[in-house]
What we know:
The structure holds two protein chains of two kinds. Chain A has helices at 4-59, 73-79, 102-114, 133-143, 151-165, 179-183, 192-200, 218-233, 265-269, 284-359, and strands spanning 70-71, 86-92, 185-190, 204-209, 237-249, 252-261, 263-264, 279-281. By secondary structure, chain A is α/β, with parallel strands linked by helices. Chain A has one domain (37-311): 3-Layer(aba) Sandwich (Pyruvate Kinase, Chain: A, domain 1). In chain A, strand 3 (185-190), helix 7 (192-200) and strand 4 (204-209) form a beta-alpha-beta unit. In chain A, helix 1 (4-59) runs antiparallel to helix 10 (284-359) and helix 8 (218-233) packs across helix 10 (284-359). Chain A is elongated. Chain A starts with a helix and ends with a helix. By secondary structure, chain B is α+β, with helices and mostly antiparallel strands. Chain B has two domains: 4-84, ATP Synthase, domain 1 (Sandwich); 90-135, Single alpha-helices involved in coiled-coils or other helix-helix interfaces (Up-down Bundle), CATH 1.20.5. Chain B has helices at 91-110, 119-135; strands at residues 4-10, 14-21, 23-28, 31-35, 42-55, 58-71, 75-80, 83-84. In chain B, strands 1, 2, 3, 4, 5, 6, 7 and 8 form an eight-stranded mixed sheet that branches. In chain B, helix 1 (91-110) runs antiparallel to helix 2. Chains A and B meet through helix 1, strand 8 and helix 10 of A and strand 1 and strand 5 of B.
Amino acid sequence: MANLQNIRRRIRSVKSIQKITNAMDMIARSRFNAARDTLLSNIPYVDKTREILKRIMAQMNASEASSTFVMTRQELIDAQSRTDGKFLFLVIAADKGLAGAYSSNVIKEAHETIEYDGTSPSVSEAEDNENFHQKIFDALKNAGVDGDQLRAQKGIAKAGGRRSTSTANLSVAKEYHDADYIEGIELITVGRKATSHFKQRGYNIIKSYHGISERPNYHYAKEIADLIVERFLTGEIIDVTMIYTRFNSAISCTPDDVTLLPIITDDYAASVGAKEEYIYEPDVVSVLNDFLPRRIATRIYGAMLHSAAAELSSRMNAMSNATDNAQELVGKLNLYYNKVRQAGITNEINEIVGGANALE
Amino acid sequence: MATIRLEVVSPDCGEIFAKDIDMLIVRSTAGELGILPRHARLLTELLPYPIRIKEGASESLVAVGGGFMEVTPELITILADSAELPEMIDVDRAQASRKRAEERIAQYKQAQKDSLIDIHRAEAALARAKARLLVKNIPIN
C-alpha cells in the first residue's frame, strides 16, 4: 500500500513547481508584451526598406550595378574563382531553455539550410521569399567544374556523399574530419543555445553574442552587420544567410531564412516590365554603399525583434501548459491520496470489527 | 491638382506620417530638394533636419534624424533613423541633449584629437537636437 506521507510530499513538490512555472509564465507574458510592442512598431520600417530594395533592384541595370554588394548571377559565378568561397550563416536562437521547441526548431532549420547540397529539391519560390541561398548554391554548383568548386560547396558535397554511405550524422561537423566542410562554413550565433549546439558539433563559430536574445538592441545588430560586411568585402565569404524565427502571432512562430548578401539582381529583375531608372543623389555607388549595409543592420535588428517575441511567446505557452499540467497532476494526486486514506480507514475498521467479533 | 503620397517610418515608432501631400522639401546630403507629384525615381540620403510638408495652403514640419528617402512618381518613402511630429517633441529634452552634444564637441576641440569622445556621434546628436528645436520654431543660435 502506498505511503500517505510520500503522496503528500509529492503533492507539495508538484505545487511548488507549479508556482515556479506560473511565475515564469507571468514574467514571460509581461516581457512578451513589451517585445511585441517593439516588434510591431519596427515592422513597417523593415517592410518599407525591403520594398525599396526590391524596387531599386528591379530597376537596376546589370551594367550599373557597381556596388560591391550587388551582382548579377554571372558575376557571382565569375567571382568564385577570386574568393575563398565560404558560406556564412547567422543563427538567432535563445539564451535560455524552457521555451518549448523554440530553439530546436530554429536549429533544425539552420541545419537544413547549411547542409543543403543541391540534391534535395529547392524550397517553394513564394513571392515574399527572401531566401536565395539555395538558388545561389545551385547556380554555383551547376557552373563549377569538378575540383574548381567553392570550398564550402566541396565540403558539403563530400559530406553529403559520405552521408549516403555511412551512418554518420551530417549535422556533426567534426565526425567528418574534413577541412573544407569545417572551414568552409562560418557561423555567427546569437543566443547560448545556438552557440553550444554548434560548438558541440564542431562547427566553426567566428563570433557569438549572448545575453541579448530577449531584449535586442540596434547597437548589436549594427555590430553584426559590420562584421558581416567586413567579412564579405575581404572576399572570403560569398554568401550570407540568416536563420531566425518569424513571429506570426502568439500561437504561430515559424523559422525563416533570409539571404543578406550578395544581392543578385536577376532575382528581382523578373518582377517588373518596363525599366525606369533611378536618380541617385549624389551618385549610385555612395548611396548604395550607405543604404545596403544599413538595410542589412535593419534586417538583422528586425529578425532579432521577431526572434525575441517568438522566444517569449513560446516560453509563455510552454509555461502556461506546464502550469495547467501541474494543476491536473495535483488533482489526480489528491484523489489518489484520499482513496488511499479512505482505504486505510476502512481497513482499520475491518480489523477492529474483526477483532471484536473474535472476542465474542 | 495631383498629389503624392508621403510615408515616413522610423525603426522605433513605426509609421509616423502617411498622407497625400502637395509638396515635400527635404535636406539631403547633396543639398535641398523639393519633391512634387510625378517626380522621377530617386534615392538619396537625408541629413538630420526638419522636412517641410505642404498640403494646400498649410505647411507642417516633421523632425527627421537622418535616413534615406526613396521617390517614385506616386509615392515618397522616408526611412528615418528617428522621426517626430511636432507634438511628439519634448523641448526640454531636446535642449538638454543639444547642450550635452555642444559640451562634448567643445571638449573634443580642447582635448587631443585621439580622446575618447566620439565626435561623429556628438555631431549627429547635435544635428538631431537642432532639427527637433527647429520643428518647434525655437531659434537655434
